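Bench notes, afternoon.
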Amino acid sequence: MILPIIAYGDPVLRKRAKEIYPGTLNVKTLSENMFETMYEASGVGLAAPQIGQSIRMFVCDGQPLNEDEKEEDIDPTVIGFKRVFINPEIIEEAGDDWAFEEGCLSIPGIRGDVIRPEIIVIRYYDVDWNEHEEEFEGMAARIIQHEYDHLDGKLFTDYLPIIRRQLIKKKLADITKGRTDVDYKMRFVK
């Protein structure tokens, strides 16, 4: 089922999400709905707060980043990178910091350079409640860090320089009021 994506300005995007406990939620069905919603919006990651659920869960699939690339431009860090992260905890960040222009399904039409570490180690549960600890790098690490931020009430715009945030203030206000043009289902602040 395709769910509406919560637009910038909704308080759920600024809350620290709560942990999930086994048996309290059908995480398999929820993750399937989240993937379907993410694909419909042409995203590579989607956090539960972005569909109005303040819980510590997100989904990622970086493979679409390689779909239109020439063989020499394919990003190896996202090959086979499709995961559901439940109650994730980033336990290490390493490597050089690097900038990349990020966007967000909850903040359509706005992009900006965000600096993040190139390598992370994350501990999380999958939909069968198996615990994993994995290292990711490059674009896969970036996607995870972006979605993980959503669970702590942070948005990529928080990382932008103050002057850039001032320049996008009106666009953000327009999104809050539903004045944005997207080709996917969104829910705006009332």
